[in-house]
Design brief:
Umud Fragment, subunit A; 30% helix; 11 helices; alpha+beta; 434 Repressor (Amino-terminal Domain); 306 residues; two-stranded antiparallel sheet
Length: 306
């Protein structure tokens, strides 16, 4: 299930219309419709929506902590995952995911109230991030879905062969295909809008993006050294407002007390959210998010301009 489908299911469960929910949380019905059908993957006002729908933001975003699934059922899923998918002992499981042994013992007994937090930790690992729907489903499916893999099709891409002697060319590899173009805007523009669609970027310099992104994607030039050594001043970052921001995502955010956007990494730990600088020498390593910040979009690609 997606964020949109969970919002829709919870709305229908409580008997609210789209227009009714939209009015209560300060959105237009058209905006809520885009959220529910999956067009908008990183909706604003998630806290207000969750409060009105009588559930937690974590349930809407990650599918954990739902009233549809008891903690005991979630504990059973975690135990099933440990035995079936990983085939490791409780001690190994505790060490792998940095879970206190006491908490894991309670989960094994089906009595822990922290099962949703344990699931959050599991889903942060790239190898298990695809299991969000499996964990959020009230049913205990006997088969755990495998991680999707990319399959190389030699008939679709033979550019890695030399045309003359059909031997591999190790010096040059084909460039990525272009998926879209996006306008370059300023950091003040990125931090001052209320609706991204209001930006008129027809005359802006545009850059080609080699990854899938929405039509609302825009480009910023990195400023300063807070994100070194991962990103350097002058690097181009492509920001997609409709991409889902999860733990570990690089995001552009707007702080309420600032007139421009900021570029940081999103950290979600034990239900708390932070913006983290990549530079270990940056004075303000973590900025707590407690209602004072709006996530503008997720960085989906970065490159350099020469």
């Amino acid at each position: 299930m997606t964020i949109g489908s969970r919002i829709k299911n919870q709305r229908l469960k409580l008997g609210f219309s789209q227009a009714g929910l939209a009015d209560q949380v300060g959105l237009t019905q058209q905006t809520l419709q885009k959220i529910e059908n999956g067009t908008t993957k990183n909706p604003r006002r998630i806290e207000e929506i969750a409060k009105f729908l009588k559930c937690t933001p974590e349930y809407l975003q990650f599918g954990v902590g739902s009233e549809e699934m008891t903690q005991q059922e979630l504990c059973e899923k975690i135990r099933f995952f440990r035995i079936t998918a990983l085939n490791i002992s409780t001690a190994e499981f505790s060490n792998k995911f940095s879970i206190p042994e006491q908490v894991l013992a309670e989960i094994e007994a089906g009595e822990s109230k922290l099962a949703d937090k344990v699931v959050e930790k599991i889903l942060r690992y790239e190898d298990f991030s695809h299991l969000q729907d499996w964990f959020s489903s009230p049913e205990l499916q006997p088969e755990i879905p495998p991680k999707p893999t990319k399959v190389f099709n030699p008939e679709a891409d033979i550019s890695w062969f030399d045309d003359e002697d059909h031997t591999p060319n190790n010096n040059v590899s084909p460039g990525p295909s272009i998926k879209a173009t996006a306008p370059l805007i300023s950091w003040v523009q990125a931090g001052s809008w209320s609706e991204i669609s209001e930006i008129k970027a027809y005359d802006a310099e545009r850059y080609m993006c080699p990854v899938n992104c929405s039509d609302l994607t825009f480009v910023l030039k990195v400023q300063g050294v807070s994100m070194e050594p991962k990103f350097h001043e002058g690097d181009l970052i492509f920001v997609d407002p409709e991409a889902e921001c999860i733990h570990g995502s690089y995001v552009v955010a707007r702080l309420d007390d600032d007139n421009q956007a900021t570029f940081k990494q999103l950290i979600i730990e034990s239900g708390h959210k932070f913006l983290k600088a990549a530079n270990p020498n940056w004075p303000e390593q973590l900025i707590p998010i407690n209602g004072n910040c709006t996530l503008v979009g997720k960085v989906v690609f970065a490159g350099k301009s020469f």
